[in-house]
């Protein structure tokens, strides 16, 4: 059991350059109608570096929390597109913000943010008080902009949350924090989505689609069962933002209606590790989350990896 913890701050960062489906129509054999119908994406943000976007998102979270950077005990940066092979990008973000404590990158592809969040609660369990969790990716850097099968999907962005240990009841007895999680991976499918050093992303879209729905439903169901929470009790489902059809198919099987599902991919595209916290921040910005709400976060991605968590929100 992890200790009770609250979200004291959150923030996001998107590059200022917006690429619309109409822009892509100009250079690729594709159409706005095809992209919207097959993916739900209308536009995406492109540009910047992971360190830039992660720093901006984390700074926004710290400012909202009113927390001094030196009082942070750990930075966990989920990214699958580190700016350089060495050093880990979190070291740059840690330096720029003047954070206290340690810093590490977590590469769990599009499931990375939930992996990082679970690791953050684990850090609280071994004595950290404040952990900054950031999801940030610049997929545009490893996308072949002449390949219509990937160029219409991937994009850039970052979002961050600050979690802080608190007193009182533990999460399984009504307190805030992590009730349950489910992490998994099927490494035999690692070649369905890959990018060699210096290369661009290649993927088997249809097979990933099939596996994504199955992994999301099974992993979310496992997390709900471990939390002893019925799906009707979930106030908001925050899924990975890869494809609206994947989200809709998963929701239909889980029994979660659209009004209890967070969706931003129409405006962001697939931003990998940033997608779940971007959707979370968007829902917070539109006041769709209140203290005491149960949230179900669920991601899947390259690897193929998956990760789900049930969290009782309190700020
Ligand atoms: N514009 C127009 N036509 C296209 C495009 C495009 N951008 N892309 C593919 N097509 C064509 C194909 O060539 C094919 O034509 P054909 O029938 O003449 O052969 C047709 O559209 C259908 O292609 P499919 O691949 O079957 O299309 P599908 O409906 O599966 O949609 C997509 C493709 C959007 C890629 C979908 O499979 C998908 O979203 N898969 C999941 C991908 C994903 O989530 N990847 C990220 C994983 S998360 C991570 O770790 C980063």
Descriptive report:
The chain has helices spanning 21-27, 32-39, 50-65, 89-97, 112-125, 148-151, 205-227, 244-254, 265-268, 275-285, and strands at 5-13, 18-20, 43-45, 74-78, 102-106, 130-138, 156-165, 177-185, 193-194, 202-203, 234-239, 294-301, 305-312. The protein contains ten helices and 13 strands. Helix 3 (50-65) packs across helix 4 (89-97). Strand 12 and strand 13 form a beta hairpin. The chain is 34% helix and 25% strand. The strands form four sheets. The protein has a five-stranded mixed beta sheet, sandwiched between helices. A four-stranded mixed beta sheet has the order 8-13-12-11, sandwiched between helices. The longest helix is centred in the C-terminal third of the chain and has 23 residues, at 205-227. It has 315 residues and is α/β, with parallel strands linked by helices. The protein folds into two domains: 5-165, Peroxisomal Thiolase, Chain A, domain 1; 176-312, Peroxisomal Thiolase, Chain A, domain 1. 54% of the residues are buried. The structure holds acetyl coenzyme *A. The site of acetyl coenzyme *A (ACO) has 22 residues, from helix 2, helix 6 and helix 7.
């Amino acid at each position: 059991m992890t200790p009770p913890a609250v979200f004291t701050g959150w923030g996001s960062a998107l590059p200022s350059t917006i690429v619309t489906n109409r822009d892509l129509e100009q250079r690729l054999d594709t159409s706005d109608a095809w992209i919207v119908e097959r993916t739900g994406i209308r536009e995406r943000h492109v540009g910047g570096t992971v360190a830039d976007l992660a720093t901006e998102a984390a700074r926004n979270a710290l400012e909202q929390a009113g927390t001094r950077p030196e009082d942070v005990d750990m930075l966990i940066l989920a990214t699958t597109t580190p700016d350089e092979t060495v050093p880990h990008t979190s070291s740059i973000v840690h330096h720029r913000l003047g954070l206290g404590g340690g810093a590490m990158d977590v590469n769990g592809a599009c499931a990375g943010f939930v992996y990082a969040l679970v690791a953050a609660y684990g850090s609280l369990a071994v004595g950290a008080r404040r952990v900054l969790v950031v999801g940030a990716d610049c997929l545009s850097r490893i996308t072949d902009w002449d390949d219509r099968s990937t160029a219409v999907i991937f994009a850039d962005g970052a979002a961050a949350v600050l979690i802080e240990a608190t007193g009182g009841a533990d999460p399984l007895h009504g307190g805030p924090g992590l009730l349950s999680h489910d992490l998994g991976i099927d490494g035999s499918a690692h070649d369905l989505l890959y990018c060699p050093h210096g290369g661009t992303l290649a993927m088997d879209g249809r097979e990933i689609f099939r596996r994504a729905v199955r992994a999301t439903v099974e992993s979310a169901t496992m997390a709900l069962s471990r939390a002893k929470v019925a799906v009707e009790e979930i106030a908001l489902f925050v899924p990975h933002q890869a494809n609206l059809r994947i989200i809709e198919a998963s929701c239909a099987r889980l029994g979660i209606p659209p009004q209890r599902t967070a969706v931003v991919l129409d405006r962001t595209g697939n931003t990998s590790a940033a997608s779940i916290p971007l959707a979370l921040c968007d829902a917070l910005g539109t006041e769709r989350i209140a203290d005491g709400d149960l949230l179900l976060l669920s991601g899947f991605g390259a690897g193929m990896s998956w990760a789900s968590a049930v969290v009782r929100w309190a700020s």
